[in-house]
């Protein structure tokens, strides 16, 4: 799945991406480290992998609910 980097904190190595529908989804340091990146700039296009969480689809009415990012890496063609 593709997304756009929205926020990134280099100290905690965590932040948020925006899905193509505009929904912000947070990622933690483990997801950032799994992608092998050293830096992420807001607006940068990224590829993410997700897994379902216990919140379930539709929780809160947005498409990011019930989803956890497990990997953030650069989008390549």
TrEMBL record:
Protein name (Swiss-Prot/TrEMBL): 2-phospho-L-lactate guanylyltransferase
Species name: Streptomyces rubrogriseus
Lineage of the species this protein comes from: Bacteria, Bacillati, Actinomycetota, Actinomycetes, Kitasatosporales
């Amino acid at each position: 799945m593709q997304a756009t980097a929205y926020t990134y904190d280099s100290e905690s190595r965590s932040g948020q991406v925006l899905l193509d529908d505009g929904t912000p989804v947070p990622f933690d340091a483990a997801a950032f480290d799994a992608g092998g990146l050293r830096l992420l700039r807001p607006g940068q296009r990224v590829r993410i992998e997700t897994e379902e969480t216990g919140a379930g689809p539709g929780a809160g009415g947005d498409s990011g609910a019930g989803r956890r990012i497990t990997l953030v890496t650069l989008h390549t063609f």
